[in-house]
Amino acid sequence: MQHVGIIGSGIIGLLSALALTDAGYQVTIVARDLPGDETQDWASPWAGVSIFPHPDAGGESLQTENFKYFWALAHRDPTSGVQVIKATEHYDDRDDDSTIWYKTVVPRYRLIPKEKLPDGVKLGFTYTSMTINPAYLLPWIQKQLQARGVTFIRKTLSSIEEAKKLTGAKIIVHASGLGAYTLAGDKNVEAIRGQTMFVKTDFVDQLMMHQGSHYTYVIPRMFTNGAIIGGVSQPGNLDRNVDTDLRADILQRVNTMTNGGLLSVDLDKDVQEDIVAFRPGRKGGYRLEAEGDVVHAYGFAGLGYIFSYGVALKVRELVDSIVRQDEVPRSRL
């Protein structure tokens, strides 16, 4: 059985391990942060999470495979924290849905008549999608992996070579997120600050997002009777503190988007948690490729969950290609 080491236990690393064990690989995961940890130093536990495919990010086949995986998981095992829900998207930066490639992928896609859109919104549509509560999903995946014999090692690594020595694996999947700045020497890696709030609200039957001139969303959290509302996307901003002025701005934008759906929310009474975290971005887009016996999979910014299982399948394909290459007999000439 071929042994593969994985750096990182965020959503990309965990689902890559799941895909690799499906194919019969032995897997060891090495990570500074593990499921259940709640620190600002990694993004996966703090995401919304909405499965909104992205029209402009590329990787359409990856996003499609990911949508199919979570759709099946939501129906197969609700204890995973994956919930089927109505989704609504608003855009003010495009006039029609010619760029919305996933309209043929998602169930029940419907355009919203322009006369029914809020002021300033040029395009709106609904479909059926999913939300994910990462507090349930990440431990759920870890439990599946441990049942398959996957070992988890908590360690802050200084290099990819250190991961090889620690795991004894020849092949490494590098999914360290922001850690790639150091581990891969990739100076295009960039932290993208996000700030959201978890609020108690009755607005839990619909997932909504506005994109274009601002980035606004409300994402119900399964099992909580509440929702994540946000947000901002601030590349290069490393401030870990809560911007108190932004709280009121977020709530005002959410209420405009939802036509007053959260007017009952009181910032002093109903905010259960202010969340500041850092999405693992990369200037020029994500990196998903093999380099020798290392498979790099990082730089997905705020779209990690939207790409994750599609990325995992591609990671497995790249690992397979490394194994096949190693098995080719070397010429003695």
From TrEMBL:
Q: Which cofactors go with this protein?
A: FAD
Please verify whether the record's keywords include Signal.
Answer: yes
- Does Phosphoprotein show up as a keyword for this record? no
**GO CC, alphabetical:** cytoplasm
Signal peptide per UniProt: 1-23
What's a Pfam family in this record? DAO
| A molecular function (GO) term | FAD binding
Which residue range or ranges hold the FAD dependent oxidoreductase domain? 4-315
Q: Name one GO biological process term.
A: D-amino acid catabolic process
Q: Which UniProt keywords apply?
A: FAD, Flavoprotein, Oxidoreductase, Signal
Question: Which PANTHER family does this chain map to?
Answer: D-AMINO ACID OXIDASE (PTHR11530), D-ASPARTATE OXIDASE (PTHR11530:SF11)
- Family per similarity comment: Belongs to the DAMOX/DASOX family.
What is this protein's name?
A: FAD dependent oxidoreductase domain-containing protein
- Please tell me the species this chain comes from: Aspergillus aculeatus (strain ATCC 16872 / CBS 172.66 / WB 5094)
